[in-house]
């Protein structure tokens, strides 16, 4: 336990500046997608009316900022988790070679599951922390509840992402001669995020790109997040949440089954 | 003759470095493409006229990528090349950080600058159902004229990042924030800047506007742009040479601290 805590402490100390840098990216995107179209159109009013056409809901300027800020949290969640899983597994399996120790003491599937559970949850918390300061500032008490709802919605998604990234990272590290796995890790988040559109309705993304995104639960998460922000307190949200519950169950079960099978294959 | 020989040597070194970076180049190029899509698809969709928005925003991808690459090359020179004595070999051959960045520039401009731009044009057009005619109707002379302006911005990003990494213990987080700030700024059309000619002293802004001029979507008058691009090119090239010398002096005096 002491060793595990020390490992986490050293890791966070090493990468904390990256988490801060990620907040800058998230804020940059949130502000960019609101102000750049306003600059080009010459008016914020046009952007608001365009959004009304796209989503069928009246937006206010503050509501729009809260909308983009909240959706941008997914950028941090995806980028930090994928990057972290690849670099951790590469270091521990290729450089420190602790994989044998892990497999003697436990099972590979358990190790990866608990890694995804602990590390990904923490990273999800860090990636969304800026919302705790900004949402209450924009929306008051409602903003605080919104933050908690967003966190509750993103936590299972982060665990699923952690598991899926672990499978991909393990396959990359063990089955290919790649010497710079972070080149792959850096590529996955923008592909996934561009494939869900993030700030636009998912169905507007070209079909081929959307197919890539369905490898993960991200399209469902984005739809649920958008619905949560657009239809606060309305029963329509329940439909999205129920879908998400089914999706999370499915996306959690498949990687765990795959990992257990991979474990049997490795050990035999 | 001697100059030609020197240019040939620089291009050869640049080609060698480009081959060494090939995997990272392809990865960075695709990476930049998808980040740009994530930002620009909604931005264009939220504007009143998508065809104007693509001409104003997409040329910025070229410069944004070159600035990011420049900053990466500067960091590589100060941090990563130390391993296996590559930095020593380069410095013994007289390859300073300025030379290193300049020699890789021609190939990088094509692969990191223009390739993601072309791909983003194709994907965004497919995304939003915009025709490709605008993309093919550009002024080739202005496009060529943008190259020295882009070069000056990239070498400045590289040499300044390298110096920052050598001098500042917080450079890792600081450079991330500077990169984001620069990337956010290069997408803003200079006509919205509070002071005229401010674009000349912000790396990359003038370069983007010259590219916009090639597509007829410039936001400031062409006359002003000639003045600001000339100032920008001379200013950033001179600052880069000074920064590169400062890097050499620092390494000669203190060496390089390996930081990962």
Could you please describe the fold and organization of this structure?
The complex is a heterodimer of chains A (about 270) and B (about 260). Helices cover about 85% and strands about 0% of the residues of chain A. In chain A, helix 1 (about 1-40) packs across helix 5 (about 110-140) and helix 3 packs antiparallel against helix 7. Chain A is elongated. Chain A has about 270 residues and is an all-alpha fold. Chain B is an all-alpha fold and about 260 residues long. Chain B is built from eleven helices and no strands. The longest helix of chain B is centred in the last third of the chain and has 33 residues, at about 220-255. The mean pLDDT of chain B is about 85. The interface of A and B includes residues 17, 28 and 184 of A.
Summarize the helices and strands and which ones pair or pack:
The complex is a heterodimer of chains A (268) and B (260).
Chain A: H1 2-41, H2 44-55, H3 61-95, H4 99-105, H5 108-139, H6 141-175, H7 181-196, H8 207-213, H9 218-230, H10 236-267
Helix pairs in contact in A: 1-2, 1-3, 1-5, 3-5, 3-6, 3-7, 3-9, 5-6, 6-9, 6-10, 7-8, 9-10
Chain B: H1 2-20, H2 22-45, H3 50-57, H4 59-78, H5 86-92, H6 97-128, H7 133-136, H8 140-167, H9 171-186, H10 205-214, H11 222-254
Note the run of SSEs of chain B as H and E. HHHHHHHHHHH
Low-confidence stretches of chain A: none
Helicity range of chain B = over 70%
Give the N-to-C terminal Cα separation of chain A: 30 Å
Strand proportion of chain A, as a percent range, falls in under 5%
């Amino acid at each position: 336990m002491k060793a595990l805590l020390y490992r986490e402490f050293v890791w966070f100390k090493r990468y904390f500046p990256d988490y801060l840098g990620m907040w800058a990216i998230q804020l940059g995107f949130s502000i960019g997608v609101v102000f750049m179209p306003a600059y080009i159109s010459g008016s914020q009013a046009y952007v608001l009316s365009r959004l009304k056409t796209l989503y069928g809901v009246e937006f206010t300027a503050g509501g729009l900022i809260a909308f983009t800020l909240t959706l941008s949290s997914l950028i941090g969640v995806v980028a930090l988790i994928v990057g972290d899983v690849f670099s951790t597994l590469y270091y521990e399996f290729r450089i420190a070679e602790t994989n044998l120790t892990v497999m003697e003491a436990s099972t590979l599937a358990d190790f990866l599951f608990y890694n995804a559970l602990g590390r990904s949850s923490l990273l999800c918390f860090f990636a969304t922390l800026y919302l705790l300061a900004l949402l209450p500032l924009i929306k008051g008490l409602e903003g605080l509840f919104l933050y908690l709802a967003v966190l509750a919605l993103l936590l299972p998604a982060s665990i699923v992402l952690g598991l899926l990234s672990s499978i991909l990272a393990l396959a990359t590290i063990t089955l290919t001669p790649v010497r710079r796995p972070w080149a792959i890790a850096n590529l996955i988040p923008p592909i996934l995020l561009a494939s869900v559109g993030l700030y636009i309705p998912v169905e507007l993304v070209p079909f081929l790109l959307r197919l890539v995104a369905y490898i993960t639960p991200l399209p469902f998460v984005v739809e649920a997040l958008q619905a949560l922000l657009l239809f606060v307190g309305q029963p329509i949200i329940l439909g999205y949440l129920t879908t998400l519950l089914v999706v999370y169950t499915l996306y959690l079960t498949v990687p765990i089954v795959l990992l257990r099978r991979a474990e049997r294959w490795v050990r035999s | 003759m001697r100059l030609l020989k020197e240019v040939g040597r620089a291009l050869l070194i640049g080609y060698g470095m480009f081959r060494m970076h090939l995997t990272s180049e392809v990865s960075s190029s695709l990476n930049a493409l998808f980040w740009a899509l994530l930002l620009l698809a909604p931005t264009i969709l939220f504007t009143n006229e998508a065809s104007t928005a693509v001409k104003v925003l997409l040329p910025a991808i070229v410069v944004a990528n070159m600035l990011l690459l420049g900053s990466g090359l500067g960091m590589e020179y100060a941090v990563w090349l130390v391993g296996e004595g590559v930095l020593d070999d380069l410095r013994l051959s007289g390859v300073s950080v300025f030379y290193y960045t300049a020699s890789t520039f021609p190939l990088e401009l094509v692969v990191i600058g223009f390739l993601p731009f072309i791909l983003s044009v194709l994907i965004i057009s497919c995304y939003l159902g915009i025709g490709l005619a605008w993309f093919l109707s550009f002024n080739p002379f202005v496009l060529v004229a943008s190259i020295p302006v882009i070069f000056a911005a990239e070498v400045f990003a590289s040499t300044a990042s390298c110096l920052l990494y050598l001098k500042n213990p917080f450079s890792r987080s600081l450079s991330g924030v500077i990169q984001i700030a620069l990337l956010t700024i290069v997408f803003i059309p200079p006509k919205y800047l509070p002071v005229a000619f401010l674009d000349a002293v912000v790396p990359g802004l003038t370069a983007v506007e010259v590219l916009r001029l090639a597509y007829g979507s410039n936001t400031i008058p062409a006359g002003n742009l000639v003045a600001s691009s000339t100032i920008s090119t001379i200013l950033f090239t001179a600052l880069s040479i000074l920064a590169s010398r400062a890097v050499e002096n620092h390494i000669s005096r203190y060496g390089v601290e390996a930081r990962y």
